[in-house]
Amino acid sequence: MAVNLKTLTEEELFYGAKTCQGCGALMACRMVMKVVGPKSCVAIPACCMAATTTVYPQSAIFVNNVVTAFPGLAATIAGMAAGGEAMGWDDDTTYVAFGGDGGTVDIGIQGLSGAAERNDNILYVCYDNEAYMNTGVQRSGSTPEYCWTTTTPTGPCSKGEEGQLRKNLLEIMAAHRVPYAATASVAYPMDLLRKVEKAKAYKGCRVLHISAPCPTGWGYDPARSVEIGKMAVESGMWYLAEYEDDKLKLTYRPKALEPVEPYLKCQRRFRHLKPEDIQEIQSVRDQGWERLAALYEGVR
Ligand SMILES: Cc1ncc(C[n+]2csc(CCOP(=O)(O)OP(=O)(O)O)c2C)c(N)n1
């Protein structure tokens, strides 16, 4: 299914007034709003996006927007959706939540699970920069193996983040049998826009998990965000997939997975890695892809 670019709004509904240059999270929110359009309400918890776009009197979001407590994002947006319905607002209003990975896979997961169980009529978007960035780069349940963060420092006794597996939000949502869930990346805009278009057309709880490179936390030149986002996908460190009709399927398959080394080596957060660490990360990636091949359509 191609994206109907004509349906994208020409209005800018989500500026990143104070984000860092090259902010992937902002690209994600901006693209989502291009499809969702002005007939929408937004909620955002404590995170980079709240901190950079809602500093009174310089709001950079041009639809109704509520800033929520950190764990309360899904409950708040679900309440807004229920309120809109009770007031007889049009069915085609979209209620969008934007949360970071920390606010989603760790702190907000219970509220999101409840919304998914109730099948509340919301579009929940997690932009994933792989750490709690707004408070200075602390690890989250989405931080990759051997990554430096301020709470997984590197040195003689530590290689950084120890967990091999990141929490898989797509599969957590699939286990709730939501109508639609997908992963995406800001480096693949057509794939992302198409998924937002699809999600918008569904009713009920829809969830997007978007890879959003972060020059400040990852340590690279801000001009390279899209390039680095692509390297993540081409090396199989992130994958583009969707969940629909109780099936998981890949929406983009790299021809052959690139080695992980160039992707890791261009980021300061991985600069401590030794060849054997890189080898280990690559074999964990390989095992991950074997697993995907068994569970997802379109891997082979
Ligand atoms: C209950 C609570 N705990 C901690 C904080 C402090 N805090 C504000 S933003 C933030 C980091 C958010 O990380 P994430 O959700 O990954 O979004 P990002 O900052 O990366 O955009 C933290 C820890 C808070 N506001 N409320």
In short:
This protein has 300 residues and is α/β, with parallel strands linked by helices. It has one domain: Thiamin diphosphate (ThDP)-binding fold, Pyr/PP domains (Rossmann fold, 3-Layer(aba) Sandwich), CATH 3.40.50.970.
Key features of this structure:
300 residues, alpha/beta, Rossmann fold, two-stranded antiparallel ribbon, 11 helices, 10 strands, binds thiamine diphosphate
What does this structure look like?
It is a single chain. By secondary structure, the protein is of the alpha/beta class. It has a single domain (13-295), classed as Rossmann fold (3-Layer(aba) Sandwich). It is 36% helix and 15% strand. The protein has eleven helices and ten strands. The strands form two sheets. It has an eight-stranded mixed beta sheet with strand order 2-1-3-4-8-7-9-10, sandwiched between helices. Helix 7 (189-201) links the parallel strand 7 and strand 8 (206-211). The protein starts with 23 loop residues before the first helix and ends in a 5-residue tail after the last helix. Thiamine diphosphate is lined by residues 25, 46-49, 70, 99-103, 129, 132-135, 140.
Write the layout of secondary structure elements.
Elements: H1 24-36, E1 40-44, H2 48-53, E2 64-67, H3 73-86, E3 94-100, H4 101-106, H5 109-118, E4 123-128, E5 154-155, E6 158-159, H6 169-175, E7 180-185, H7 189-201, E8 206-211, H8 215-218, H9 225-234, E9 241-244, E10 247-250, H10 261-265, H11 275-295
Parallel strand pairs: 1-2, 1-3, 3-4, 4-8, 7-8
Antiparallel strand pairs: 5-6, 7-9, 9-10
This protein binds thiamine diphosphate (TPP).
Thiamine diphosphate (TPP) binds next to helix 2, strand 3 and helix 4.
